[in-house]
Design goal:
By secondary structure, this protein is mainly alpha-helical. α7 packs parallel to α9 and α11 runs antiparallel to α13. The relative contact order is 0.15. Helix content is 66%, strand content 0%. The longest helix has 41 residues. The two termini are 27 Å apart.
């Protein structure tokens, strides 16, 4: 199902635009105060979402299998539970979308941030329910995109509620998005920059939102970590890297080139699956059920592709070397198809950790094939390069991965990120990414396709 965004303004948006002359601007202290409020609320929202999702995941993938697998018929191996669960989950996703409507996805969020500068809060219930069901069903998409839309829409709602001009509402929307990512990534500065980078293809442009966004991300991060008890620091425990040398910088450059190639391969697989599923895009229940079946069948043969891969990356780091080069590459390619079926069949979620997972597998395969390259260097650089090529977020991705990996590899990660960023400048998966100036010149040009040339 090809992602498209309807740029026709709603009646509510038109009314807001007509009334913009009566709206006001916040002073800087008032703006910071709003950022604090949004950050605190964002942390609480992320905490509630986290506990509900954990409960649902445990029920579907631990409690229910323990009860139902002994009752499987003798002719049906219990390993088939995987594709049965994902197919039923897909059907449930389709029901939610059919009855509650399509809440949109990342491309639409990016478009709305540019114009009209706000995210519709009325789509929040559908997004919350559909994303919880989709992630629980085992799709290769994580909670960052739903949280970005939910918390971003709260920032927009707050700005509209107190009668702010569009520029201020957009900043508060960014604060909500940053709060969501700050809680999710555990790297507040990187999370805030990610929220500000992703609307664009050639670097961050909404500079006025940096400080409020960082404050919201820090507050949300603190509230979330205190509420959940999750520790602060490096999330992944990579093998320690010896003291960096100039040769590591060259490795970062080469790995960035490889990562760019891997990402382009993924983008074209993503586009191919979208074209294959496009005839079903108006049949939401059938499409989501078929998507769930495909996700389950992929996981039946390659179990590592199930879920959004935050935990699965731990497994790659700890035991991936026992799989061998060929199997690691097979897992990476299978994950590309799993992500594509997930997102094109109506499963809602983000693809950042799935992209990290692809990079980790390919990076470890390279390290096994070329022992001169340290596994940690190869894995982290490929994780960065693959994600940057798709999301166009070189600065924030470098910071986030340096925090998550707990390494001192930031210079090498930056080289790999920007190499991939430069090489993939003319190809993108999020078709609505654009320069902020284009909203004044050509506001309806960039929502026609998921895969568009870079604006000149």
């Amino acid at each position: 199902m090809t992602t498209q965004t309807d740029l026709a303004p709603s009646a509510t948006q038109t009314t807001v635009d007509q009334d913009s002359s009566a709206r006001r601007l916040l002073t800087y202290p008032q703006l910071i105060l709003c950022a604090v409020v949004i950050g605190a609320v964002g942390g609480l929202v992320a905490t509630c979402y986290y506990f509900v999702l954990e409960t649902m995941m445990h029920g579907v993938w631990h409690t229910l299998p323990a009860w139902i697998e002994p009752r499987f018929p003798s002719w049906l191996p219990t390993s088939n539970y995987v594709w049965i669960a994902t197919t039923i989950g897909g059907f449930c996703v389709g029901l939610v979308l059919y009855f509650m409507g399509l809440p949109g996805e990342m491309a639409q969020v990016v478009d709305n941030v540019h114009n009209p500068g706000r995210i519709d809060v009325h789509k929040t219930p559908a997004m919350v329910i559909a994303s919880l069901v989709a992630i629980t069903a085992g799709g290769s998409a994580g909670p960052e995109a739903p949280l970005v839309q939910v918390n971003g829409s709260f920032g927009s709602w707050l700005g509209d509620r107190i009668g702010l001009e569009q520029s201020n509402v957009r900043v508060l929307t960014f604060c909500g998005m940053s709060a969501a990512l700050g809680a999710f990534f555990g790297a507040p500065i990187g999370a805030a920059l990610f929220a500000l980078e992703i609307p664009h293809r050639r670097g961050l442009e909404y500079y006025e939102a940096v400080a409020p966004a960082v404050i919201s991300a820090i507050l949300s991060f603190a509230v979330f970590r205190i509420s959940t008890g999750i520790t602060i620091g490096g999330f992944y425990h990579f093998e320690s890297v010896p003291e960096l040398t100039p040769i590591n910088l060259l490795e970062g450059l080469i790995l960035g080139v490889v990562g760019a190639g891997v990402a382009v391969m993924f983008i074209y697989i993503f586009r191919l699956i979208g074209q294959l599923l496009e005839p079903l895009e108006h049949h939401l229940i059938v499409l989501a059920t078929l998507g769930g079946l495909c996700i389950g069948l992929i996981a039946f043969f390659v179990p590592q592709t199930l879920f959004f891969s935050e935990e699965q990356i731990h497994t790659v780091i700890e035991t991936g070397s026992t799989l061998g080069v060929t199997m690691l590459l097979v897992i990476a390619v299978a994950k590309m198809f799993a992500i594509s079926f997930t997102l094109h069949s109506g499963f809602l979620g983000g693809f950042i950790f799935p992209l990290f997972f692809i990079g980790a597998n390919v990076g470890l395969a390279i390290a096994l094939a070329v022992p001169q390259i340290h596994p940690t260097v190869s894995m982290v650089c490929l994780m960065a390069a693959v994600n940057v090529a798709v999301t166009k977020t070189p600065i924030s991705t470098s910071i986030i991965l340096s925090v998550l990996s707990g390494t001192a590899m930031l210079p090498v990660i930056v080289i790999s990120s920007f190499t991939s960023f430069v090489l993939t400048g003319k190809v993108a998966m999020i078709g609505t990414q654009r320069s902020r100036q284009l909203d004044e010149k050509r506001p309806q040009l960039w929502a026609k396709s998921d895969l568009l040339p870079t604006p000149q």
